[in-house]
Design brief:
The structure holds two protein chains of two kinds.
Chain A: E1 3-6, E2 11-14, E3 19-21, E4 23-26, E5 32-38, E6 44-50, E7 56-59, E8 62-65, E9 75-77, E10 86-93, E11 103-104, E12 108-113
Parallel strand pairs in A: 2-12
Antiparallel strand pairs in A: 1-4, 3-9, 5-6, 5-10, 7-8, 8-9, 10-11, 10-12
Chain B: E1 4-6, E2 10-13, E3 19-25, E4 31-38, E5 42-49, E6 56-57, E7 64-70, E8 73-78, E9 87-94, E10 105-106, E11 110-114
The chains are: A mainly beta, B mainly beta.
């Protein structure tokens, strides 16, 4: 079955540091890949997505590239801010399953200190 | 702007009570989902629905049921609440299309405590 494995947290960084959160996946079909962010006290919201190999999703300074050869979708940001402190979830939606249903990673908690 | 609204942010109930959690979306989405979120366990799918009156079990349906009488509304029911159902509950929705690139839209969650 499908699965998503993300880097265990928590991750603590200083402001302006470089961020990488690793995500690898297993899927039976050709999935779309997503990163969601959950700020304290809120639900998840879409951060970025990529739907085919070598696509790069980007938003708010975050980027992730769909790497089919390594089955990875690592999240990066060049310079984090305190306001980026949140939980980040990697997810996939597989074309072979019910369209719209997703498999989520366990989430990685990021804390950015001033 | 798209919106998924969960009826309560915080809820406290007693063991054995029947509990209803309500979710409404205004985006005319076909799919709706209920998850629970627990520390260290990520998001776990309880039930989902891809059409009115249709439902499918997710990964952890035991102790729960759902109702989808109207397209915009998806209710989660705890038939007889137990303390191990204390959790954060998240509702989500998206379009059911022929492809798989539709992200899910989430509500802000209901933090349920069973005493």
């Amino acid at each position: 079955g499908d699965s998503v494995t993300q880097m265990e947290g928590p991750v603590t960084l200083s402001e302006e540091a470089f961020l990488t959160i690793n995500c690898t996946y297993t899927a039976t079909g050709y999935p779309s890949l997503f990163w969601y962010v959950q700020y304290p006290g809120e639900g998840l919201q879409l951060l970025l997505k990529a739907t085919k190999a070598d696509d790069k999703g980007s938003n708010k300074g975050f980027e992730a590239t769909y790497r089919k050869e390594t089955t990875s979708f690592h999240l990066e940001k060049g310079s984090v801010q305190v306001s980026d402190s949140a939980v980040y979830f990697c997810a996939l939606s597989d074309e072979d399953t019910n369209a719209g249903k997703s498999t989520f990673g366990d989430g990685t908690t990021l804390t950015v200190k001033p | 702007d798209v919106k998924v609204t969960q009826s309560s942010r915080y809820l406290v109930k007693r063991t054995g009570e029947k509990v209803f959690l309500e979710c409404v979306q205004d985006m005319d989405h076909e799919n709706m989902f209920w998850y629970r979120q627990d520390p260290g366990l990520g998001l776990r799918l309880i039930y989902f629905s891809y059409d009115v009156k249709m439902k499918e079990k997710g990964d952890i349906p035991e102790g729960y049921s759902v109702s989808r009488e109207k397209k915009e509304r998806f209710s989660l029911i705890l038939e007889s609440a137990s303390t191990n159902q204390t959790s954060m509950y998240l509702c989500a929705s998206n379009h059911l299309q022929g492809n798989n690139n539709q992200p899910q839209h989430f509500g802000d969650g209901t933090r349920l405590s069973i005493l």
